[in-house]
Write a structure and sequence with these properties.
CATH architecture of one domain: 3-Layer(aba) Sandwich
Order of helices and strands: HEHEHEEHEHEHEHHHEE
Strand content: 15-25%
Distance between the termini: 16 Å
CATH class of one domain: Alpha Beta
Low-confidence stretches: 229-275
Radius of gyration: 20 Å
CATH topology of one domain: Rossmann fold
Mean pLDDT: 79
Number of helices: 9
Strand order of the largest sheet: 4-3-2-1-5-6-7
Structural class: alpha/beta
Shape: globular
Helix content: 40-55%
C-alpha cells in the first residue's frame, strides 16, 4: 500500500469517527436529564443483579430520568427494559463487537458505534449520574473513565453509585489501602464514589446530590462537557479547511459538517468516496 493510499484510508477513517459523533449528538440532544447505567452483558434475566437493575431503571424512569445503557444484553438489557416500564426514554448506545454484544429489544433510541471512545462520550455528555452494577473489564473501563474525568476536572462532578456492596467492596478497599496508601490518589478522591444497595436509596441519593441546584449543567460545567476528550478532537477536525482533506483522482462528494453547538460555522468538506 502506497503512502497516499494509507493517508486516504486514515482520512476516511477520521470522517467515519466524526459521523459517529454527529449521529450521537443529533439523536441524544433531547434526552436531558439522564442516568447512565453500566454493567455486565453476561448477567441472565433470573439473576438478582438483573432484577435489581430492572427496578432501579424503572424508578429512575418514573422519576423523570432518561436511562442510558450500552444497549446490549444482561445488565444493559435490564436497564433499558426497566426504563421502558417507566415514563422516560430508554436509550441504548451499542458497540459493534465480533462476539457477545447484540442489541436488546427495549430501546426507544438506539445508536450503533464502531469506536469505543465515541460511545463513551455519549455516556458522559448527557449524564446527571452514573449507576455502576457488577460487571467485567468493560464495566471497569467505564468506571475508571468516569472517575478519571471527574478527578482531573475534565468533567463535572456528578454522583457515581456502585450497586452491590459485596461485589465492589474489595476493589474500593484496594483503592484505599494501595492507591491511597502509596499516595497515587488523594483521600478525597474516594469521596467521589458511593456504594448503595437499595434501589430507592439509589434514586434518593441522586436527588439529594442536586438539592438546592439544577440537574442541568451549570454554565462552567457545560464548558467542561464541551472539552471531554473526543469532543475536543471533533471540534479541531471540523474546523480544518477543505484542503487538509485528501483529494485524489476519482469521485468525490460533499458532506455537510453541522454546527454542534461548538460555535463552528457550517461548512462543506470534500471527502473521498473510495470508489
Amino acid at each position: 500500500m502506497s503512502m497516499d493510499e494509507k493517508r486516504t484510508r486514515e482520512a476516511w477513517r477520521v470522517f467515519q469517527i466524526m459521523s459517529e459523533f454527529v449521529d450521537g449528538f443529533e439523536k441524544l440532544e433531547c434526552i436531558h436529564p439522564a442516568v447512565s447505567v453500566f454493567g455486565s452483558a453476561r448477567t441472565p434475566e433470573e439473576h438478582p443483579w438483573y432484577q435489581k437493575t430492572l427496578e432501579i431503571a424503572h424508578l429512575l424512569s418514573d422519576s423523570g430520568f432518561s436511562v442510558v445503557s450500552g444497549g446490549g444484553p444482561g445488565i444493559m438489557e435490564a436497564a433499558n427494559r426497566g426504563a421502558q416500564m417507566g415514563k422516560s426514554d430508554s436509550i441504548g448506545v451499542n458497540i459493534v463487537l465480533p462476539h457477545e454484544q447484540k442489541g436488546n429489544d427495549y430501546q426507544d433510541i438506539s445508536l450503533d458505534f464502531k469506536y469505543f471512545f465515541a460511545r463513551k462520550v455519549m455516556f458522559v455528555k448527557h449524564a446527571a449520574a452514573y449507576v455502576v452494577m457488577p460487571g467485567g473489564f468493560g464495566t471497569l473501563d467505564e468506571f475508571a473513565e468516569i472517575l478519571t474525568l471527574i478527578q482531573t476536572g475534565k468533567s463535572r462532578r456528578i454522583p457515581i453509585i456502585l450497586v452491590e456492596r459485596d461485589f465492589w467492596k474489595g476493589l474500593i478497599e484496594w483503592f484505599d489501602s494501595t492507591l491511597n496508601g502509596h499516595g497515587t490518589i488523594s483521600p478525597e478522591d474516594l469521596d467521589l464514589i458511593q456504594m448503595i444497595d437499595d434501589p430507592r436509596e439509589v434514586v434518593e441519593a441522586i436527588f439529594q446530590f442536586y438539592e438546592g441546584r439544577t440537574i442541568e449543567p451549570l454554565p462552567q460545567e457545560h464548558e467542561l462537557l464541551l472539552q471531554v476528550g473526543a469532543l475536543e478532537l471533533f471540534a479541531r477536525l471540523a474546523q480544518r479547511q477543505r484542503q487538509e482533506v485528501l483529494l485524489d483522482e476519482g469521485f468525490v462528494r460533499r458532506r455537510r459538517v453541522r454546527d454542534l453547538g461548538l460555535d463552528l460555522v457550517q461548512r462543506d468538506i470534500v471527502v473521498r468516496t473510495g470508489q
